[in-house]
Amino acid sequence: MDIFYTSDTHSYVYPTDYLGEEPKPMGYMALASRFTPDSIIIDGGDVLQGSPLIRYELKNRISPHLAAKAFNAAGLDVFVPGNHDFDFGYDKLCEFIYSLDARTVCANLHDERGSLHVLPYVVIQRGEEKVLVTGAVTDYVNVWDKDRLAGMRVLDCVDSLKRVLEQTSRLDVDWRICVYHGGFSSFEEGRIRENRADEIAGLGFDVLLTAHQHQVIQPHFIEGTLVLQAGSKASCCAHVHLERNLFPKAEILKCVENVTLDSMVSLAREDRTQAKVEEYLKTRVGQVDGVLEDRSRVWSYLHGSSLADYINDLQLRLTGADISATSLFNNPISVGPDVTISDLLAAYPFANTLKVFEITASQLRKALERSAQFVDFKEGKYFESESFSPGKDERYNFDFYRGISYSFDPRKPAGDRVTRLVFKGVDLLCNKDFRLRLVLNSYRASGTGGYDVYAGLKPVREYNLELQDALIDSFDGQIVKVPKPTDFLIDA
Fold first, then answer.
1. N or C: which end of the chain has fewer CB within 10 A?
2. How far is 348 from 55, CA to CA, in rounded Å?
3. 162 near 105, Cβ under 8 Å?
């Protein structure tokens, strides 16, 4: 029996990353050519967010989504939703699930309205062999999407999977497979755990297919369970081979460029959405009187980023807050002097909204201390701290601030690196109870990424406008100025 597994495709269906015109070895249409007949095809979620394609479809209410059509053409058997599949609420998730030929499995998703038709597990037979497939989504959906879970509850994933094993212990199956939209080794004390694959690997499944961290984790065994992770954006898939009386075997297969699954050819011919997306992305929205820079990861940490300054200034204009924080993303991208929609969506790829909180100077310092950990200084050199992103590239959890003057000293121990923090002449290191209004995007406002200090704050105001749309509108065909740099210094 063979299983092919993908996850975190984020609706990258065609062989493009939308950053250039040259085809790339990625996209579900090409990746599915790796699948062999009579195999079990599984996807581990995160489809309804990510690529410009899905954003265009959502904005223009195009349904069914091309990703769903591609899944159906490939013969998808099982779909396990990821955290981003909850981003748009019950009705959108329901609509997407209904468009799939596959069965949707999620043991820790409780459907209070009864319309999702999500199963705790399925049993699939190929020839004489039977395999049980169950799945779960990271508990952290309760943190990120708590405002969008109306009609649904996400339960403890480990407890839910234990319950499946108990309920199916007498079923006559040859293999037990778990799909977990979560990853490995992430613990935030006193809060819900985001990545619990280490625990799940000890429950007794034969194979654990993980997701969420966008990593390629080669197959290996943990406590007798075969575990792996197959990357993101349909650039790789996992092939698992199961044979009675033998240990499971697996390999990670890369997408082959310029190869399309036969069943996808007619789909590609009929589809007009991709061409509309490509034309839309070329739309020129304005100019910069220079370049909004994010030069490199360490350089921007040390010297700041005019791109981050621009985004922060926009957040301040939209909300009237005192100070603003924003992150940039894993791959540094600069914008300008000519600016297209593609440039802006590449620079800010997530559909975040904004929230304003009242925060004390003491709480603000705790948040800055988290950002200050991104770079270390040893033997006369600056480098990215391995402790900041254990097991996953998390540059997006380093925040840039605007409206304050501040300094970091990377030579000092983590938690004691903020050496200057001033707001309009007020020394916030000395005036710990001083209160300010801080604007954050909806992702950071949840307290994720090590910013627990935000989790207990109640928003003063919330804004439904997506920051991607606000960025595009901020140009309005005009020439925008590069902001003056934030008053930020490195003491080392």
1. C
2. 13
3. no
Average pLDDT, integer, range 339-350 = 90
Residue with tokens 């000092």: 412
Convert the pLDDT of each residue in 218-244 to its tens digit.
999 999 999 999 999 999 999 999 999
Whether the CB-CB separation of 480 and 474 falls below 8 Å is answered with yes
pTM score of the predicted model: 0.81
Long-range pairs for 218-227: beta carbons < 8 A, 24 or more residues apart = 218/252, 219/249, 219/250, 219/251, 219/252, 221/247, 222/198, 225/201, 226/250, 227/197, 227/201
Torsion sign over Cα 303, 309, 452, 201: negative
| CA dist., res. 351 & res. 287, Å (int) | 23
What φ, ψ does residue 354 adopt, rounded to 5°? -120, 150
Mean pLDDT, all residues of the chain: 91
What number of CA atoms fall less than 13 Å from residue 428's CA on the CB side?
25
DSSP state of 191: S
How many residues belong to the chain? 492
All structural domains of the chain, each given as residue ranges with its CATH number in brackets, are: 2-277 (3.60.21.10), 284-490 (3.90.780.10)
